[in-house]
Amino acid sequence: MAENGEGLGTVPEHERILQEIESTDTACVGPTLRSVYDDQPNAHKKFMEKLDACIRNHDKEIEKMCNFHHQGFVDAITELLKVRTDAEKLKVQVTDTNRKFQDAGKEVIVQTEDIIRCRIQQRNITTVVEKLQLCLPVLEMYSKLKEQMSAKRYYSALKTMEQLENVYFPRVSQYRFCQLMIENLPKLREDIKEISMSDLKDFLESIRKHSDKIGETAMKQAQQQKTFSVALQKQNRVQFGKNMYFNDRIPEERNEVELKRAFEEEDENEEEVLTVQDLVDFSPVYRCLHIYSVLGDEETFENYYRKQRKKQARLVLQPQSNMHETVDGYRRYFTQIVGFFVVEDHILHVTQGLVTRAYTDELWNMALSKIIAVLRAHSSYCTDPDLVLELKNLIVLFADTLQGYGFPVNRLFDLLFEIRDQYNETLLKKWAGVFRDIFEEDNYSPIPIVNEEEYKVVISKFPFQDPDLEKQSFPKKFPMSQSVPHIYIQVKEFIYASLKFSESLHRSSTEIDDMLRKSTNLLLTRTLSSCLLNLIRKPHIGLTELVQIIINTTHLEQACRYLEDFITNITNISQETVHTTRLYGLSTFKDARHAAEGEIYTKLNQKIDEFVQLADYDWTMSEPDGRASGYLMDLINFLRSIFQVFTHLPGKVAQTACMSACQHLSTSLMQMLLDSELKQISMGAVQQFNLDVIQCELFASSEPVPGFQGDTLQLAFIDLRQLLDLFMVWDWSTYLADYGQPASKYLRVNPNTALTLLEKMKDTSKKNNIFAQFRKNDRDKQKLIETVVKQLRSLVNGMSQHT
C-alpha cells in the first residue's frame, strides 16, 4: 500500500517533468533530469517507463499524421520528378549563361578595379588637399614669421606667434612639423627679447651721446621764446606808458628795434624748430615696450629702463673737474641735464607706465639736489664777475626750460640768491682793482679846463654845481681831481653790473631796488672805503695829495644823493618808500676824510720830526749865535707853504692841523731839552734855544691858518716859554713862592721838568768853572742852585706822595 501510495504520488511529478522537457530548451534539460534522480529511489525506472509510454503516444500521433499527409507527399514527389528534366535543362542554360557572363565580366572587373583604385586615389588626394588646406596657412604664417624676424618687425612677429599658437597650431597639432614649430617658438621669443634689449641698449647709448644736442635745442627754443616775450613786454610798456623798470640807457625807440628784430628772428627760426622726436628715434623704446608687454614681462623692462636711466642720470650729473673755468663747461653740463629730462618727459607722455610722474619727480628731486650742490661748489671757484653773470643767465635759461616741461625749479632760483651774493663779491673785488687803478693814475691836483667843451665833458661825468666856478673865465679849475668823476662813473657802472644779475629772476621792482642799494652800500662802505684807506696810508702819498683826497671825498659825499636818484630812476621805487634802504656813502666818505685828516696830522708831525732831527745844538756854548737855527727856519718856511695849501680844506681841518703841528713842535723841542742822553746844558745854549722858540712864537702869531682867536696858537709853546723865562731870568724865588697858585707866573712849569734842566746846567757849571769855587759870586750861585735843586726835589717828592 505504501508503494502504491508512493507510486500515485510520483505519477503527477513525472508528467510535470515530461512537460518541462518537451517545453524547455535542451540546454536547460539537465537540471530537470537531475531532479528525477534526486527524488525517491527507483524513481528513474518509473520515469523511464513513463517516458516510454509518452514516446509511444507520440509515435502514434506521428503515424496518424503521416497517414493523413502521405498522398500529398506522393503527389509532390511525382511533380518533383516531372520538374527534374526541366531543371536539368535550366541548369545547362544557367551554366552556359553564367560562363558567358563570366567571360563578359572579366573586362568589367578589370575596369572596376581601376575605378576602385582611382576612387581610392581620389579620396586620398582629397584627404591630402584637405590636410594641406589646414597646413598651408600654418606654413604661410610661419613663413611670414620668419620674414618678420628677418625684417626686424619683432612686435608683428610676436603677434604672428600668438595667432599660430591660438588659431593655427591646434588644427595641425598631430603633425610632427607642427611640434617642431611649437618647440621653436620659445627660442624665437627669447631671440626677440635679446634683440629688442640690444636695440634698447643702443638707444640708451644714443640718447646719452645726444643729450647735449637735445638740451641745446630745448634751451635755444626757450631762449627764443623768452626773447620774444621780453621784446613784446617792452613794446607794451612803451605803448601804454608803463616803463616799469630797466635801463635808462636804452631809449624807447630802441625797444621797437629790438621787438622788430625779435619778430624777424622768430620768423627765421620758425621753420627750423626741432622737437625731440626730430633729434632722436624713439622707436626702439616703443618697440621694446610693446614686445615686453606682449611677452607679459613689462615689469622687467620697466625696471631695467629705469635702472639704466638712473645710472645715466648720475653720469650726466657728474661735472668735469674744470667746469668752473669757462662758461662752455657750465653750458655742456646744463644741456646734458636738460636733454636727459626732456627725453624722460617725452617718454612720460607717449608711453603708458614706463615712466610715471612720481618716478620723474623723484629723479628730478635727486638731480636737483646734486645740481645745486655742484653749482654751489663750482661757482665758489669763479672769480670773474662776467663768468658768474653768464652762469646766472645759464641757470635762469636752464630753469625756464625745465619749468616749461613741468619740473619745479624754485630751489634753483633760491640758489641764484646765493650766487648773487658771490657775484657781488666778485664785482667788489673787480671794482677794488678798478678803484686802485684810478687812484694810481690820478695826479691829485684840481682838474684844469681851458674851454666850454672840456667843462661840459666833466659836468656830464660828474654832477658838480658851483655858481662861482661857472662865472669864472677860462682857463679855470675844478676843485676835485680826475679820480672823482672816474669813481662816480665806476659806481654807476657797478650798479648797472649788479642790475644785470637781477634781470630774469622774477623779482619785484622793490626787491631789485633793495638788492641794488645793498650791493652799492657794500661797494661804498667796504670796497671804496678800503681803497681810500689804503691809499691814504701809502708812504708815497704826501700832504698835498692827502689834502686833495679830503677835497675829493667831500665832493663824492655830496654826489651820493645823485646815486640814490640814479637807482630810483632805474627801479621806479621812490626813496620815500618805507622799506627803501639808504646809501651809506656819507659815513664812508666821512670816515675816509677823517682818516686822511689823521694821516695829515701824522705826516705833518713826521715832517717836523725830520727837521728836528737836523738840529745840531752846541749845548756847551757860552754865548748864543744871535740868530735862530737854520733847521728851525727851514721848518717854519715848510709849514708856511703847507698851510697855504690847506686853504682849500675845511677851516677846522686846517686849524686842527696847524695846532697839532705847533703842539708837536713844542713837544719835540721840550723833549730835546729833557733828553736823557743830554747831560749838560750851558746858559748860552739855553739862550740860543730861546731864539728858536721866539721864532716859533712869531710863526704862531702870524696866523698861518685863519680862524684862530687871539693868541690861541701861541699857547702851544707856553710850556717852553715859561720854562725858558724861568731860566733866563733866574727867577726861582718867584717860582717857588707862587708854585701851586692859579695866578703863578710859571704855572706851566713842572717841578720835575725844571729839576731835570737845572741839574744839567748845574753839572755844566761845575765842569766849566773848576776854579769858580775860589770866587765868592760863583760860590753863592752854586749854593743857590743846590738850594733850588733841594727845594725842587722836595716839590717832586711831594707830588709823588700826593699822587
UniProtKB/TrEMBL annotation:
Keywords: Exocytosis, Transport
Entry superkingdom: Eukaryota
Pfam families listed in its UniProt record: EXOC6_Sec15_N, Sec15_C
Biological processes per GO annotation: Golgi to plasma membrane transport; intracellular protein transport; vesicle tethering involved in exocytosis
InterPro entries linked to this entry: EXOC6/Sec15, EXOC6/Sec15_C, EXOC6/Sec15_C_dom1, EXOC6_Sec15_N, EXOC6PINT-1/Sec15/Tip20_C_dom2
Location of the Exocyst complex subunit EXOC6/Sec15 C-terminal domain: 412-760
Domain Exocyst complex component EXOC6/Sec15 N-terminal, residue spans: 50-219
Record has Lipoprotein as a keyword: no
This protein's GO CC annotations: exocyst; plasma membrane
Its job: Component of the exocyst complex involved in the docking of exocytic vesicles with fusion sites on the plasma membrane.
Family statement: Belongs to the SEC15 family.
Name of the protein this chain belongs to: Exocyst complex component
Organism the protein comes from: Lynx pardinus (Iberian lynx)
